[in-house]
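User: Could you check the structure of this?
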Amino acid sequence: MVDHFRAAGQLGQAGRVGRVRGAAEPAIDVLKELLTTWSAAHDVVLADPDQACEILWGTLYGIASLSYLGNVGSDRARRLAEQALRAILLGWQTEALANG
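Assistant: Sure, the predicted structure tokens are below.
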């Protein structure tokens, strides 16, 4: 019986994630466009652009959540998001240079 409730909870969680993802789709589309422009400008070939977008979206969403929950202030969240974005993009750029 516990497994049944655990599975039901996971299905419910998946539904919530799907709704959040659907509501965020316009922002995700903009992020995909920006990521495509960045990768072309820096000669970075992303093996899976959708996965790269999900990495960025998840990171930025997580930092925004910290701000929303009051764990960090909005100014600090903005700085953390900028630092995280720079670090991820620099990592992809460095990887592309090493492989290219």
